[in-house]
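Researcher: Structure for this, please.
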Amino acid sequence: MQFQGLLLLGGIASLLLSSCGGDHVRPRVTLAELSAYSSIPVTIEGTPRTAYLTDDSCHYSEWAYGVMKPDASVNLTTAYQTSDSIIVVTPYGIIPLDVFSLKLYLGAFFSRTFNEENASIAPLPIQRLVEEKGSTIAVREYLLQPERTYFARVRIDTVNLAATRPVISTDEVIEYEKNPQLIKHVLEISDKPFTSQKPPREATPAYADEPAKGHHHGLQPFRVNERAE
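Model: Predicted structure, token format:
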């Protein structure tokens, strides 16, 4: 009976661990804590998704389009961006983040041009764009994929609350008056290591319109012996 009781308790414990996703056994970390380091190797977890243009597995996707100019340049407009939060897995712990707490510097996972000759194999929205514009349309898709290593660092922005303050409650007005500036941490992620203040790639179209601002405290490189146990 005692042995059966232990088995029962073990089964209940396993069920609880499964229902909680096991995340509580992994340490959590904050952006403020990560800001001491630069070019941190990370992987991405979250809601499984299928990329729109390629059907590849991912946890984040965005795709953009633009009319190809005579000099082969293109100004991309974001057509779609996922809105799900992701879980960033770092050597120091995990951190859930929404898309507003990120800035991505990624190479295009998929890049192709479509015109009247090959528009029939393009997704329907691209077919309509080719028909509407009568020009060559460049299409690019950017992904954060599972089981792939990316690199991250924290950018620290200072937001002037007095200039952007919405209509809020009295208590919030008092808090704003005490702290007229808000420190916001943003996690920059790239598929290439950060080796200088300048990002290794251009920002993806969904983040390209953000002005260059903020600073980095990450003077310490990631060190293997500092991995969280």
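Researcher: Any notable elements?
Model: The radius of gyration is 22 Å. DSSP finds five helices and 14 strands in the chain.
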